[in-house]
Amino acid sequence: MVHPATAATLEHSGGHKGTLETGPGLLRDLSLPAAVIHQAPLEHNLSWMQAFAVDHGAHLAPHGKTTMTPALFRRQLAAGAWGITLATLPQCRAAFAEGVTRLLVANQLVGRANMTIAAALIRAGAELYVTVDSGANVDQLDEFFGAAGQCLNVLIEVGVDGGRCGCRDDDEIAALAHRIHASSGLRLAGLEGYEGVVHGDDPVAGIRAYARRLIANARYLDSENLLETEAPIITASGSAWYDVIAEEFRDAGLDQRFSPVLRPGCYVVHDHGIYREAQRGVLSRRPDLHEGLRPALEVYAQVQSLPEPGLAIVALGKRDIGFDLPPEALRRYREGASVDAELSVDGWRVIKQMDQHTFLSLPDGADDVQIGDIIAFGASHPCMTFDKWRHVHLVDAELRVIDTWETRF
């Protein structure tokens, strides 16, 4: 029979991995593996990107799908963000329930169930924007929201050949704008795009051309009186090319008539992989930006087996950390040690991952490794790591847990 006190403790834990068990110390009190956000780089990133947007005459609507962590949404909004971008209507509902009232969906709204969620959000006071790229979708939305007596804000998505969604042809954009203008349930609020689908031998030139196409279409629709809001939105920018998009929007003087909106999401915690490399590209193009972003998200895990010379097995797997690129071993500690007692991971390399195990190749001379050693790992593409956690921990410079935040995936 399970003791009632034990049962209550187990029930309170909710079965979540990475729980804080006995105190605030990451190196002694946290059930590992656990996802951790470092306070100082997080605060730096929040202020850095907000200042970048303001300096370029743009609003910031961070892509919330990266973290789906309401506590981070609130910090982004407190830092000055114009709104939060989401990918789905259930994500919008979760964000709205946590106080986010301006929601930009960087996707088409399809399906009556999703339209029902959108209608409920609008009735509850949300300022909601969705994208469209076809007459069929416009007709479906017009029928639903017209019958509901509502007017849905829509942005025409501008696509590229070989990309994902979006109008490929500028004549199609104009025709779609006229169709929206004639509807009763829709309001054309601007244009949306995503430059991350632009490829070629000279990506910077391609992305600049794409941004200029967005701008030209926005100005054309405005000249035809097809844009139906006071300050129409023109929005693009993921986490890799935000500098190029922001420059094009700024240099076009869009903020005199439009609301330029940038939508990077990964900046808030940055990473140790593809966005670290992308940031190096940004800084090479814009040395005036100086340091740029800092990685804030790490996953901590323990060595659980040393079965062969030169091999360590860590209790961390694909269910715990993003794996589009192998995780990177950053630091190592003894369990219960202080933060300044850091041990070497020089030459340590992830060679294989399974659901719950990571294989680390150790260099010659790495003979001080012990069972239970704690390793901090950096990941590539933070979206894929956040998605694996029901809560994440905020830690200070001494690796004390100062807050625990729930995710809403």
Give a verbal description of the structure.
With 409 residues, the chain is an alpha/beta fold. The chain folds into two domains: 15-38 and 293-406, Beta Barrel (Lyase, Ornithine Decarboxylase, Chain A, domain 1), CATH 2.40.37; 101-264, TIM Barrel. The protein contains twelve helices and 17 strands. It is elongated and about 70 Å long.
Task: Please specify the SSE layout and strand pairing.
Blueprint lengths: L3 H10 L12 H4 L4 E5 H17 L3 E2 L9 H9 L5 E3 L2 H9 L4 E7 L3 H12 L3 E6 L2 H13 L4 E7 L11 H12 L4 E8 L9 H21 L9 E4 L5 H10 L7 E4 L11 H12 L11 E12 L2 E4 L13 E6 L15 E5 L4 E4 L12 E5 L3 H5 L4 E5 L5 E6 L3
Parallel strand pairs: 1-16, 2-9, 3-4, 4-5, 5-6, 6-7, 7-8, 8-9
Antiparallel strand pairs: 1-10, 10-11, 10-15, 11-14, 12-15, 13-14, 16-17
Helix pairs in contact: 5-6, 9-10
Structure keywords:
single chain; alpha/beta; eight-stranded parallel β-sheet; 17 strands
Quick overview of this protein structure:
This protein is of the alpha/beta class. It is built from twelve helices and 17 strands.
Question: For the CA atoms, what is the radius of gyration?
Answer: 24 Å
Would you tell me which CATH topology of the largest domain applies? TIM Barrel
Distance between the termini: 35 Å
Number of helical segments with 4 or more residues: 12
Q: From the structure provided, what is the oligomeric state, counting identical versus distinct chains?
A: single chain
How many domains in all?
2
**Poorly predicted segments:** none
The tally of strands reads 17
- Listing every helix as H and every strand as E from the N terminus to the C terminus, the arrangement reads HHEHEHEHEHEHEHEHEHEHEEEEEEHEE
General form? elongated
Main pleated sheet:
9 strands, mixed
Instruction: Give me the CATH architecture of the largest domain, please.
Output: Alpha-Beta Barrel
Query: Which percent range fits the helix content?
Result: 25-40%
Question: What is the CATH superfamily classification of the largest domain?
Answer: Alanine racemase
Task: Indicate the CATH class of the largest domain.
Answer: Alpha Beta
If you average the pLDDT, what whole number results? 95
